[in-house]
Amino acid sequence: MSTPVNVAELRTYLGTDNSAEDPVLQDMLSRALNALEAMTDRNLYARQEVREFHPEDDVQGPWLLLGDDLAEVVSVTNGDGTAWTQGVQYVTWPSRPPFWKLKAVGGYSWGWSTDPDLDRIQVDGYWGRTRNLEGESREAVIKLAAFLYRQRDNVSDADRPIVTPEGIVLMPARLPPEIQSFVKRRRKRRVMA
Questions:
Q1: Distance from chain centroid for Cα 57
Q2: What gap in Å lies between CA 144 and CA 179, rounded to an integer?
Q3: Strand locations in the chain, DSSP E?
Q4: Domain boundary assignment for the chain
Q5: Apex 164 CA angle, 38 and 166, nearest 5
Q6: Is-contact 29 23, C-beta < 8 A?
Q7: Is the pTM higher than 0.90?
Q8: pLDDT tens digits for 82-116?
Q9: pLDDT tens, 109-140?
């Protein structure tokens, strides 16, 4: 998996210019990003995909509940097959990304044409917190990748991550404090109905 963080950035952070380790460093960046996304239950940077929503399950009044962070809307197709335009048929909420829901406006409503079990509302967009991994999230990926890289050969030390010959990362009981703090602040909070 490619990551939005350049291997050269990780080399700079580690204080090395040895490009011979680039494949290992790229692997550590991928593992760090995957681990942070799993721990926070969020896409830290957005990937484009089309997601489908059921009008009866995902619509509350004028609101289409997205269930995940949406960094950018590419297109919206209502359940009746009509393409909707932002600002005309719907608006995003909140007004700046990441968006959590879309609101039907201008007298329009979310719906379907004939069969609610077949016709889905489709949202094509960049799903995640942001289109570009920046700031604190970028720094966390680099720091965790460096941590994993530095600890990859410490197989006798059970309080450090271990990367097995098969490429499996066995995490220690405790991550560095700055990573723990990042995960705590960024973890998705779920509200139970």
A1: 23
A2: 7
A3: 47-53, 59-60, 63-77, 83-84, 90-93, 99-104, 121-127, 162-163, 169-170
A4: 7-44+132-186, 47-127
A5: 90
A6: no
A7: no
A8: 999 999 999 999 999 999 999 999 999 998 776 65
A9: 998 776 656 678 999 999 988 888 788 889 99
